[in-house]
C-alpha cells in the first residue's frame, strides 16, 4: 500500500510536534493530557491514511462518516482551488454568493418537496440547534409560547452542543454529566421493531401516550431516521417512522429528522427518510455534505414554517462562517460527484461485503449481535471495548477503526474496494477473536 508522493509536502519534525501535542492539545472525547495514544497522519489518499512512521491504515471510519469519496480527491481539490481564487470567505448577512445559492438549489431539489427553505450552518450539532430554534420560534409566532419542550428517543444522539445534548439519551448517552443543567425533555423508548419488520400498535403505544399527554408542551419530535447513530447504532423499522409521522400530524407537533449521519447515501437511499416515504417538517444535514473537506451543515424547513416564523421575528441565529464559500463550493462538487456515480450499486456492494466479512463475528462468545445496513456494519459486544488497546491492535494490523462503548462498527468511504473491505473485516474479526 503506497500513496502518490507529494513533492510539495512540507517536512515536519514529528518528535517535536508530538511533544507539543502531548503538552498542549486537547483531543475530542479525551483527557488532557491525553489518556489514549494519538497517531500522527502525514498524508491521506483514497481510503488510506499514512502515519508519520510510514505505516498505512485502511480507514474504516471515513473520518467520522464524512469522507465518502475518499481522501485527496482530484475533483474536490479542484473545486476548492477554483473557489479559493475567487473568494475564500465573506459574511452572509446582507451578502450572498453563487456557491451558497447553488448549494441551496441542489438541496431543495434533492430533498422532499415541502422542504423549500435552507439555513446553512457550521456543523451538524449547530444544524440541530437551529432546527430546535426554528421549532421554538414557530410556536412563539403562533402564540403558543408554552411549547418549549421536545420529545426525543432513548439511544438517540444529536450532537454535543448545549441544547442538542438535551435531546440525546440522558441515561446511556455520553452527556450524563450535564443532565442536571440541561433543559429537561421528554423521551420515548428506542424504536423496537428492527429494520425490515412491521410496526404494530403495541410498538408505538408508549409514543402515542407521550404525545397525547404532552403535545401542548411540545415544540417538536426529533429522531434519527432508520438508523440511531452514536447513541446505539440501531436500525429500526421504516413503518415505525411512518407511524411517527402520522402521530405528529394527528397531535399537531413538528417532526424533525436528523439525517446528519444518514444523509447522502449511507443507508442505501439518498436520505434515510426515503425508506419510509415520509417528509419531515425540519431536516438536518451535515457530515458527508462536503465529502469531509470542510465543516458545513444545513437545516431545511417548509415555506409555511419559515413564513410563519418570519412574520413574527427573524430567525435568531447568525454564525460568522455561515455559508462559507469554500465549503459551499466543495459541497456542490461532492453532491455532483455522488449523483454522477452509480452510488446505489456501490452501497449495495459494500453492504454485501460487510455482511460476508462480519458474519464470522456471530460465532464469537463476546459478541451479542452483528447488523448491517447499507454502508454501515456493526458488531455489538457484551462489554465495552478497551479503546486504547483496541486502537493499538488496529494500527498494528493496518486498519483504522474507532469503536465506542460496546459497539465496534465500520462506515468506510464509498470508494473502498473489495480487497480493502475484506482485509478490514478480517483484521477486525481477528482482533475480536483475540480479545474474548
TrEMBL record:
Site (Participates in the substrate recognition with KAPA and in a stacking interaction with the adenine ring of SAM): 29
EC number(s) stated in the UniProt entry for this protein: 2.6.1.62
Pathway info: Cofactor biosynthesis; biotin biosynthesis; 7,8-diaminononanoate from 8-amino-7-oxononanoate (SAM route): step 1/1
Role noted for this protein: Catalyzes the transfer of the alpha-amino group from S-adenosyl-L-methionine (SAM) to 7-keto-8-aminopelargonic acid (KAPA) to form 7,8-diaminopelargonic acid (DAPA). It is the only aminotransferase known to utilize SAM as an amino donor.
Gene that specifies this protein: bioA
Entry similarity comment: Belongs to the class-III pyridoxal-phosphate-dependent aminotransferase family. BioA subfamily.
Binding site for pyridoxal 5'-phosphate: 124-125, 258, 319-320
Reaction catalyzed: (8S)-8-amino-7-oxononanoate + S-adenosyl-L-methionine = S-adenosyl-4-methylsulfanyl-2-oxobutanoate + (7R,8S)-7,8-diammoniononanoate
Coiled-coil regions listed: none
Keyword list, A-Z: Aminotransferase, Biotin biosynthesis, Cytoplasm, Pyridoxal phosphate, S-adenosyl-L-methionine, Transferase
Cofactor(s) this protein cannot do without: pyridoxal 5'-phosphate
GO molecular function: adenosylmethionine-8-amino-7-oxononanoate transaminase activity; pyridoxal phosphate binding
GO biological process: biotin biosynthetic process
Subunit and partners: Homodimer.
Transmembrane segments: none
Pfam families: Aminotran_3 (PF00202)
Main location per the UniProt record: cytoplasm
GO cellular component annotations of the record: cytoplasm
Matching Gene3D superfamilies: Aspartate Aminotransferase, domain 1, Type I PLP-dependent aspartate aminotransferase-like (Major domain)
InterPro entries hit by this protein: Aminotrans_3 (IPR005814), Aminotrans_3_PPA_site (IPR049704), BioA (IPR005815), PyrdxlP-dep_Trfase (IPR015424), PyrdxlP-dep_Trfase_major (IPR015421), PyrdxlP-dep_Trfase_small (IPR015422)
Organism: Thiospirillum jenense
CDD domains for the chain: OAT_like
Domain of life: Bacteria
Entry protein name: Adenosylmethionine-8-amino-7-oxononanoate aminotransferase
Record-listed substrate binding positions: 64, 157, 287, 318, 402
Subcellular location, record wording: Cytoplasm
Record PTM N6-(pyridoxal phosphate)lysine, positions in chain: 287
